[in-house]
Amino acid sequence: MPPRVILIGPPGAGKSSVGKSLSRLLKEDFVDTDTVIAEQEKQSIGEIFVDKGEPYFREVEEQVLLKQLVEHSGVLSLGGGAPLSTIAQGAIKASGSPVVFLDVTLAGAAPRVGFNRDRPLLLGNPRAQWQELMNVRRPIYESLAHHQLMTDKLTPNEAATAIVTLLS
Ligand SMILES: Nc1ncnc2c1ncn2[C@@H]1O[C@H](COP(=O)(O)OP(=O)(O)OP(=O)(O)O)[C@@H](O)[C@H]1O
Ligand SMILES: O=C(O)C1=C[C@@H](O)[C@@H](O)[C@H](O)C1
Ligand SMILES: [Mg+2]
């Protein structure tokens, strides 16, 4: 069975934290593709980027996503870049699962991301990197989404509650 709901969005949108809250509200299991990758590879996401490089990470990420789309029937939160490949986009659409784009501004994401955590893509000038990622990705997130939720002023629990309403 495909996921009950898929959460997408940029780093700091709250996919992992909102996803956990949402799974409790919906009484569904929760899976985060980043967590599956780290467990499977026995390394943190940051370590995988350093040791094996981003192309390797993206290959593993795509395989994990394709598997979860057919095996996981609960709440599925994706890594920020997981929905970007053509194959990923096709598989997400084919799953028929409702997709929620958790939106956030740079000002909203900055304090959440802290720009000092395990986010290898934001090394260097994290604010500029984040904005650059978002400029490229926003059209893709929007094209996949059945629902879009601006999370700047919402706690993870408020965002989860709003998603329950959007899905009903
Ligand atoms: N709506 C929110 N309000 C306040 N803090 C939040 C909110 N959503 C998430 N946070 C906090 O921001 C941090 C980042 O959130 P989270 O890890 O859920 O983002 P993410 O979208 O999964 O990012 P990534 O793409 O890097 O996995 C966490 O410490 C979390 O507690
Ligand atoms: O936005 C991204 O491309 C990423 C987000 C994180 O969830 C991780 O999947 C990784 O740090 C890459
Ligand atoms: Mg996450």
Give structural notes.
This protein has 168 residues and is α/β, with parallel strands linked by helices. It has a single domain (5-167), classed as Rossmann fold. The protein contains 8 helices and 5 strands; from the N terminus they run βαβαααβαβααβα. It has helices at 15-26, 33-41, 45-52, 54-71, 86-95, 106-113, 126-144, 156-167; strands spanning 5-8, 30-32, 75-77, 99-103, 147-150. Helix 1 (15-26) crosses helix 8 (156-167), helix 2 (33-41) crosses helix 4 (54-71) and helix 4 packs parallel to helix 5. It is globular, with a radius of gyration of 15 Å. It starts with a strand and ends with a helix. Residues 9, 11-17, 34, 79-80, 112, 119, 151, 154-156, 159 line the site of adenosine-5'-triphosphate (ATP). Catalyzes the specific phosphorylation of the 3-hydroxyl group of shikimic acid using ATP as a cosubstrate. InterPro entries: P-loop_NTPase, Shikimate/glucono_kinase, Shikimate_kinase/TSH1. ATP binds at residues 12-17, 119. Its EC number is 2.7.1.71.
Properties at a glance:
5-stranded parallel beta sheet, 8 helices, binds magnesium ion, binds adenosine-5'-triphosphate, globular, 168 residues, Rossmann fold
Mean pLDDT rating:
94
Widest sheet: strand order? 2-3-1-4-5
What is the N-to-C order of secondary-structure elements (H for helix, E for strand)?
EHEHHHEHEHHEH
Strand segment tally: 5
List the bound ligands.
Answer: adenosine-5'-triphosphate, (3R,4S,5R)-3,4,5-trihydroxycyclohex-1-ENE-1-carboxylic acid, magnesium ion
Shape descriptor reads globular
**Contiguous helical run count:** 8
